[in-house]
Amino acid sequence: MKPIHLTLVCHARTEAQRVGRFALDDEPLRDPSAPLSTTARCLSAPELRARQTAEGLSATVDEGLRDCDLGEWKGLPLKQLDENALQVWLSDPHATPHGGESIAALYERVANWMDSALMPGQWLAITHPFVIRAAMLHALAAPLASFHRIDVPPLAEVRFSHCGQWRLQLA
C-alpha cells in the first residue's frame, strides 16, 4: 500500500481575522502572501481567500475543503453575537444557532473527504482553520469537544500521512 502525504495550509490573513469577525465567502486577503512553492499536487478550497493564497500553484478547487457554513453569522464580529447562542455553539458540537453547518457536520464532511478523496502521493491543500481543526481531530480520533481548543494561524501548515490510518506529522 502506497502512502498519502497531505499538507494542509491555512489561507493567508484576512481583515476578518484581524478584527475578530467571521469571514464572508468572498472575503479577500488582507495582505497577499509570498507565493507558495511545492512539487505536490495542489488543491484549494473554493472561497476567494483560499484561492488567492493558492495563486501560482495550479491548484484544483475542491469543494471538500470549503469552510464551515456559519449561516447568519457570516461577516459578524464575535462581540455582536448573542452570548447565549455563542456559548451553545462553543459547548455543543451539534448545535447550529447560526442556521448553518454544525461542527459535527463539518467534522464528518472533512473526515469523509480525507478518507476518500485522495490518491496515494504528495498533496498540498489550501483551506481554512476550521477544516484544519477537523482534520486534526480526525487523524487523532480526538473528541469533538477539542475542536475549539486548537488555534490555526494564517499560513500554518499541518502535515498528515496515511498508510492504513491517518497520522499527524510534526515537522
TrEMBL record:
Q: Which Gene3D superfamilies match?
A: Phosphoglycerate mutase-like
Stated name of the protein: Histidine phosphatase family protein
Organism's domain of life?
Answer: Bacteria
Q: Which InterPro entries match?
A: His_Pase_superF_clade-1 (IPR013078), His_PPase_superfam (IPR029033)
